[in-house]
Amino acid sequence: MDIKFFLHKNKWYDWEHMLNSYNKYVNKHSIVLEIGASNIEKTKMLSKYCKKLIGVEINQKRIPENFDNVHYIHGDWQYLSKTIKPDSIDIVISSHVIEHVQYDLKAINELYKVLKKGGIAILNTPNRKRLTRAFIEFFTGPRKFPYWEHVREYTEEDLLNLLKKSKFKNFKILPVVFGIYGGNIYIYSKSVPNIFKKWSNFWEIHLFK
Questions:
Q1: Spans of all domains in the chain
Q2: Mind listing the pLDDT tens digit for each residue in 86-95?
Q3: In which region does residue 182 sit, left (phi positive, over 0), alpha (psi from -120 to 50) or beta (all else)?
């Protein structure tokens, strides 16, 4: 197991994992759509590998200025095809957004509409049963949703049930990070042994059209 120990240090390995996945599919001709695009530094990491990046942000006050090959629009994932032309996107990236969306199945099906044939969407989201939550809830009982800004969080079974109802017939769900990952202490394994899969910290979802 690849164990790393971090103290008082933010180590966003879930983003690094997503970026590594993205780099396997992107090329200089790719048209990329980023949903939840208010973090300029992360957008720059994506945009340097593609022809064009469209950033969709629901909060108009958080929309950055356009730059280089990046163009921002105000929009709602649940109504994506009203602002993005159908069958026009090669890759969709969305980091920690789906748990904020009211109608998640509708949002997933909107991805199917805007992706080109052969396109891919890469999403990530917290695992509702991640190790620290599972431990806390052993004593407190399950967290009730909506909680804070999260409409819901997902177990692997929740995601499977959601995706089986969607228009996507080809998808995979990857566990990302196992351990204590947050606050000021980071003790985690980058690789997640299958025996610990259901307690991973995050899920990364790949949807293929």
A1: 12-127+154-178+203-208
A2: 999 999 999 9
A3: left
